[in-house]
Amino acid sequence: MESPQSFVEEINITEIEFYEVVGKGAFGVVSRGKWRDKDVAVKNIETESERKAFITELKQLSRVSHPNIVKLYGACTQHPVCLVMEYAEGGSLYNVLHGTQYQPQYTAAHAMSWALQCARGVEYLHGMSPKALIHRDLKPPNLLLIMGGTVLKICDFGTACDIQTHMTNNKGSAAWMAPEVFEGSNYSEKCDVFSWGIILWEVITRRKPFDEIGGPAFRIMWAVHQGKRPPLIKNLPKPLELLMTRSWSSNPVERPSMTEIVRIMSHLFQFFEGAEKPLSYKENHDHSDASKIF
């Protein structure tokens, strides 16, 4: 098998100027840095067990090129081991939705745009050849924002797998995870569609999915296994509600493909204006009922 290093540029660690730590991914610590006059995110591998996820992410990211997927510039494969990627100055979508520091205002157009951009990135992954890629851990912490919050990029490919692998080990995060993944059944790319449906609900309501359940992750998994889903949203246009509920159907076969989601979302998105406006960080606004954005 070809080694993953052959796909990507080998970067000399001494060329990178490191700044502050900005987060932690599925593996490793992520720092902001400068490399050849570019702002970069550098993901450092800390333990031997993280090497496996590193090799996966390196292999998968080196295959992809799409405006809604984080760009990989290269890697340091000698000690210390790290990935060098584009830096997303807007942080994660999760922090924009639920962060404690800033609470930017956003509109229904922004919510629709984020969901559509996420769907486009995943559609690209699912359409890859010779083997489709399943992300398996789609959730707002793995969706990064740039350009004032208007452009979304999917990141964290440490759990991605080739579609043929049909892995049954339990990857991902409980609130966004399709039931067939944690039930240990064989699963397909439709597990990403389930996660997308939950994300759509989350960007519209600005609430954390299944937050009311609390406790350990298995309580959410048990509820989802029994058919529990986030509550329906008041005043949500019917075509959007139907797309959302089909996406999180218990039966993967009933879920739409990402191509169908992109087609429907692109059509609906025409009716929303202002998605290109940067997010507003005004003080003292109330978004306690985010469903009012529709």
From TrEMBL:
GO terms for biological process: apoptotic process; cellular response to transforming growth factor beta stimulus; immune response; JNK cascade; positive regulation of canonical NF-kappaB signal transduction; positive regulation of MAPK cascade; positive regulation of metabolic process. Residues 16-270 form the Protein kinase domain. Transmembrane segments: none annotated. Pfam families: PK_Tyr_Ser-Thr. Its EC number is 2.7.11.25. It is found in: Cell membrane; Cytoplasm. Keywords: Apoptosis, ATP-binding, Cell membrane, Cytoplasm, Isopeptide bond, Kinase, Magnesium, Membrane, Metal-binding, Nucleotide-binding, Phosphoprotein, Serine/threonine-protein kinase, Stress response, Transcription, Transcription regulation, Transferase, Ubl conjugation. It is a peripheral membrane protein. Its cofactor is Mg(2+). SMART domains: S_TKc. Its main location: membrane. The keyword Nucleotide-binding applies. Belongs to the protein kinase superfamily. STE Ser/Thr protein kinase family. MAP kinase kinase kinase subfamily. InterPro entries: Kinase-like_dom_sf, Prot_kinase_dom, Protein_kinase_ATP_BS, Ser-Thr/Tyr_kinase_cat_dom, Ser/Thr_kinase_AS. ATP binds at residue 43. This is Mitogen-activated protein kinase kinase kinase 7. One of its GO terms (cellular component) is plasma membrane. One of its GO terms (molecular function) is metal ion binding. It catalyses: L-seryl-[protein] + ATP = O-phospho-L-seryl-[protein] + ADP + H(+); L-threonyl-[protein] + ATP = O-phospho-L-threonyl-[protein] + ADP + H(+).
